[in-house]
Amino acid sequence: MKKRALSGLLKLDGPLLSILSLLIAIVISGVIMAVCGYNPIEAFGAILAGSFGSQRAIVQTLTQATPLIFTGLAFAFAKKASLINLGAEGQLYMGALASAAVGMLDLGLPMALHLPLAVAAGMAAGGLYAGLVGVLKVKFGSNEVIATVMLNSIATYLVDYLLNGPMLAENSSVAQTERVLETAQLPRIFQQYQLTVAILLAVAACILVKLFMDRTALGYEIRAVGLNPDAAETAGISKAKVTIVALCISGCIAGLAGASHVLGVDRRLINGFSNDYGFSGISVAALAADSPVGVIFAGIVFGALRAGTMELNRTTSIPVEFVNVIQAMVVILVAAPLLVKELKRLNPAGWSRKTKKEVA
Fold first, then answer.
1. pLDDT over 70 for what percent of the chain?
2. In angstroms, rounded to a whole number, what is the distance separating the alpha carbons of residues 35 and 33?
3. Does some domain include residue 317?
4. Cβ-count burial of 203 within 10 angstroms (0-12 exposed, 13-18 middle, 19+ buried)?
5. Number of domains in the chain
6. Residues 88, 74: contact at Cβ < 8 Å?
7. SS3 for the chain, per residue?
8. How does the average pLDDT of the chain come out, rounded?
9. Are 180 and 97 in contact (CB under 8 A)?
């Protein structure tokens, strides 16, 4: 019976696995809260109220979800080519830097030209920064995980230097730039809130990536390399080209996260603005099972957790770190069945013997 239950768990995939993982993560987090002497019902009530309890809460959830959708999509896209892009944080920073620089330039352009130019600059900066990793991997055999992590540090330190020096706003005691011009600002959906049309761009990006992967030749090549690189090369698909292109597109998407924030939310580049949006995108992609459409819903879930954290902190004495526990548990629970499947594939005989002993 245990064996049948385990087999059933291993067969779970996609949305079912994600939903089950989220529910189990919430239950485990609640148990941990109770053991630590806190009321889990009070905690989850505060999180729910802070994320969906009012118009302001919903808007805050969508505002937090916007960059998470972009960074989650960036990670998921690279994963389709069997690439681990841990550099969304750095690409986000470079995108924000480029968009802020172009947005502050008085080019005499109307919004119809200046805004797309500033957004494109952010995409290009993020794409080139990620593309550098692709070149290093193809030409020199560098590991993309190590390269992207190192480039994250370079990007954040570069922005830190510029915001405390050449790009520091006049008479400002905070490390930030001047405001971007009105012609480069993303329109806000509600003037009293920070939610902008970037949420619509994020949703559109997910849908476009889905169509791109399913209906274009390049999308097919990316999926083919991700599934079986050797077979893809035998079929005439260039693994080197796919690696560079996939990382460039992934970086462009991450750059959009930075662009949308500086052009819409803060309307200037502020040091430390990210709040780990790049790294949280990994959790979003994990919950979405790397599905472009699933990223939309996963981004909203994690956006709700972030928005709810503010209410949790304001109305209760429960540590907000418990929200991080939920996020971590989601990733662990999503990854665990996949890890077991991989171990079973690599050593089917050994796994079979171990399972028989446990059942006995």
1. 89
2. 5
3. no
4. middle
5. 2
6. yes
7. CHHHHHHHHHHCCHHHHHHHHHHHHHHHHHHHHHHCCCCHHHHHHHHHHHHHCCHHHHHHHHHHHHHHHHHHHHHHHHHHCCCCCCCHHHHHHHHHHHHHHHHHCCCCCCHHHHHHHHHHHHHHHHHHHHHHHHHHHHHHCCCHHHHHHHHHHHHHHHHHHHHCCCCCCCCCCCCECCCCCHHHCCCECCCCCCCECHHHHHHHHHHHHHHHHHHCHHHHHHHHHHHCHHHHHHCCCCHHHHHHHHHHHHHHHHHHHHHHHHHHHCCCCECCCCCCHHHHHHHHHHHCCCCHHHHHHHHHHHHHHHHHHHHHHHHCCCCCHHHHHHHHHHHHHHHHHHHHHHHHHHCHHHHHHHHHHHHC
8. 89
9. no
123, 208 contact by CB (below 8 A): no
Identify the pLDDT of residue 172. 86
Give a yes or no: residue 97 inside a domain. Answer: yes
Based on the fold, state whether residues 90 and 198 are members of the same structural domain: yes
Q: Is residue 3 domain-shared with residue 87, that is, in the same domain?
A: no
The CA distances from residue 230 to 140, 177, 237, 240, in Å, are: 19, 48, 9, 12
**Has residue 238 been placed in a domain?**
yes
Q: How far apart are CA 123 and CA 117, in angstroms?
A: 10
Burial class (CB in 10 A: 0-12, 13-18, 19+), 348: exposed
Is residue 4's pLDDT more than 70? no
Q: How far apart are CA 156 and CA 95, in angstroms?
A: 12
Q: Scanning the structure block, which residue is given the tokens 């937090």?
A: 64
| Within-domain flag for 154 | yes
Residue 349: the pLDDT is 60
pLDDT at 206: 98
Residue type, 312: L
Asked if 72 and 195 sit in the same domain, the reply is: yes
What are 257's two structure tokens?
A: 């996260």
